[in-house]
Design goal:
3 domains, Cellulase Ig-like domain-containing protein, Immunoglobulin-like, six-stranded mixed beta sheet, alpha+beta, single chain, Glycosyltransferase, 15 helices, 15% strand
């Protein structure tokens, strides 16, 4: 049980109203080897801070505050203990951990359990769409949710972890995340031409001057496309080929009919106050970059089939990426924060092209991502490390912006990995910290309700949750595990001395304060993406000699050490295991079990004797662009 060092009141709306400001840390804690920071609003430059071991009460680190932030990135203890930050004359933080892949430990399962809980029906085929706001497959979200895409990528990023959890579906022999993917695939296939009634929604879909759609069934092809790609990487043991071929067939037949081959603009007509009118891009209908993802998935599928036509999908993916390179305008709000929960898809889709097919990505792909990174560096130049819209308007003035920080971290992780930009990666971790309490409200963005605690639906180690929630709102998310509920509005930020709020308080049409916001499945999708892309840059595979030297060549019959560093350390009190996949002379062999080497290391190893008749040995972990690989030439 943690000791509570501070108590945040539920009525805080501005730190300027407080006499003393708490020390705001990531309440759960920090990943070893990654950026670590806290915020202390009002603290003077040069103020001393200390990090104290909460178990021994010993001083373990000291530093000074600059720009109301304290950094302790280089503090990387190998310990199960908790720590706290003390700032002279200000106060003390809540306790927190520092551990190997801590975020992944406490958040990976909740990341997909949310989507288990919000399925609109137990039955994917006979789902009653009119009872689901927006028309399923997740409550309060239509087919534009793209859940299946990010569920597949989450599994691909760390398969040995998700293979462990098999308790919530079917006969308990198939990983839960795989079962969830297959559920969404069946839903998509069953409703890929659905034009029946749905519940009320804010607007309609289609091109101006043409018949309007109430249900965005076109997007279901995108959800099927990723399943078709994943079939060849990891779904084959679980998805019958006959069913897979039906999914593939409907994608090929309807792809051009549904305009999935191109970037779709002005598709959504919204009647909602925040984005009324035809939208060039929107969080509903078609996100900017969505066509890059889906065409790449179909390419990855088709290249494995004898009668496949991968080149046409590659061409369409290249055209869609070229559109982003040419037209993506960081200063156009309709390409950025205005599209809220869909904004993360644009940089992630462009980055994904470089992850899976770097040799085929259009000219200028990396340069465009580099320009986006520069823009992010400029827009996060504040002590919250929060991406602002302008000097006078930071967050959205009219509505929730849950698609901001929770999803932005994933985009920063993906782009930082490709550009080797450690500073951008640090900013990605700052977005995670924002979710866990380093924000103007000083609370995790999820309400810590008894209902969620009773079903194991909350993050371990978080003391202060979001002050309020709408448990019976459109999505009925009160008893859904891992729900994000709210995010600070524009008026809640302490800004520069010369900045003004511009009367944003009167424009807040959701409610009177930051707490009157509401969770949504599309917001959680962006958070799921952050959990997925966080592993890029922290997971790796090596082939070592028995004395620990990394090898590039070896001898036939030689015993080598296979080393995996991955987010698999879920239980600090037991030795855990993982799996890597081997290929000899380019042909896959059986998987190899690797075993944890020490407390809080995240390193797993196994010995392997290279077969006598070998020319090469390849080791891989992960799939679909997330694979980490190592190879030795055998002589």
């Amino acid at each position: 049980m943690r000791v509570f060092f501070i108590l945040l009141t539920c009525c805080i709306t501005s730190f300027a109203q407080q006499e003393k400001v708490p020390v705001l840390v990531n309440q759960a804690g920090y990943n070893l080897g990654e950026s670590k920071r806290f915020v202390c609003v009002g603290a003077k430059d040069g103020a001393k801070f200390k990090i104290i071991n909460n178990t021994t009460n010993q001083l373990v680190f000291e530093g000074e505050i600059l720009n109301q932030e304290g950094w302790f990135t280089r503090f990387n203890p190998v310990s199960k203990d908790e720590f706290r930050v003390e700032v002279d004359g200000v106060g003390t933080s809540v306790p927190f951990w520092i551990a190997d892949h801590l975020l992944e430990k406490i958040a990976s399962k909740l990341g997909y359990q949310f989507f288990i809980d919000v399925r609109g029906s137990e039955d994917p085929i006979n789902a009653n769409l009119p009872k689901v706001y927006g028309g399923g497959p997740s409550r309060d979200g239509g087919a534009y949710g793209l859940e299946t895409i990010f569920e597949c990528l989450q599994y691909a990023s760390n398969p040995a972890l998700y293979d462990r959890w098999k308790t919530e579906f079917g006969d308990k022999n198939v990983p839960d995340l795989i079962e969830l993917i297959l559920w969404h695939a069946e839903f998509a296939y069953a409703h890929v031409a659905y034009q029946g009634p749905v519940a009320n929604r804010h607007g309609s879909l289609g091109y101006e001057g043409q018949p309007r759609m109430q249900y965005d069934y076109w997007n279901l092809l995108d959800q099927l496309s990723v399943v078709c790609a994943a079939y060849h990487d990891f779904l084959k043991p679980y998805l019958p080929r006959e069913k897979y071929l039906k999914y593939r067939q409907v994608c090929n037949e309807k792809w051009m009919v549904y305009d999935r081959h191109k970037v779709v603009r002005y598709w959504t007509y919204s009647t909602k106050w925040v984005d009324a009118g035809f939208q060039e891009f929107n969080e509903m209908g078609n996100a900017y970059g969505q066509s890059v993802f889906s065409n790449l998935f179909m390419y990855l599928c088709e290249k494995n089939e004898p009668d496949g036509k991968p080149q046409q999908y590659l061409k369409w993916a290249q055209e869609s990426a070229a559109d982003i390179i040419q037209h993506w305008d960081f200063n156009n709000p309709r390409h950025m924060w205005w599209i809220r929960n869909a904004e993360h898809i644009t940089p992630q889709a462009l980055a994904y092209f470089l992850l899976v097919l770097p040799e085929h990505a259009p000219k200028g792909t990396k340069e465009k991502l580099s320009a986006w990174a520069t823009h992010m560096h400029q827009k996060t130049n504040n002590f919250w490390k929060y991406r602002v819209h302008s000097e006078t308007e930071w967050a959205h003035p009219k509505t929730k912006e849950l698609g901001g920080a929770p999803a932005l971290g994933g985009s920063m992780f993906a782009v930082a990995y490709l550009l080797n930009d450690t500073r951008l990666r640090d900013l990605g971790w700052a977005q995670v910290d924002f979710v866990f309490g380093v924000n103007p409200v000083g609370a995790h963005l999820s309400n810590k309700s008894k209902d969620r605690l009773d079903i194991g639906g909350y993050w371990e180690g978080v003391e202060h949750g979001w002050p309020a929630a709408h448990p019976n709102g459109y999505g009925m998310l009160g008893k859904v595990r891992g729900t994000l509920d709210g995010s600070p509005l524009d008026k809640d930020f302490q800004k520069t001395k010369t900045a003004t709020t511009g009367g944003n308080e009167s424009q807040d049409l959701i409610g009177k304060d930051a707490y009157a916001t509401e969770g949504w499945c599309v917001s959680n999708r962006g958070w799921q993406a952050t959990l997925t892309f966080s592993t890029l840059g922290s997971q790796q595979v090596k082939i070592l000699s028995r004395d620990g030297k990394e090898l590039k060549q070896a001898k036939a019959g030689e015993t080598v050490v296979i080393e995996l560093k991955a987010a698999l350390n879920m239980d600090w009190n037991q030795v855990e295991k993982g799996q890597v996949f081997l290929a000899v002379n380019g042909k896959p062999t059986s998987a190899l079990e690797v075993i944890e080497t020490g407390e809080n290391t995240g390193i797993f190893r196994a010995s392997y004797t290279i077969p006598a008749v070998s020319r090469s040995l390849q080791v891989a972990y992960g799939a679909m662009g997330f694979a980490q690989k190592a190879e030795v030439i055998v002589k």
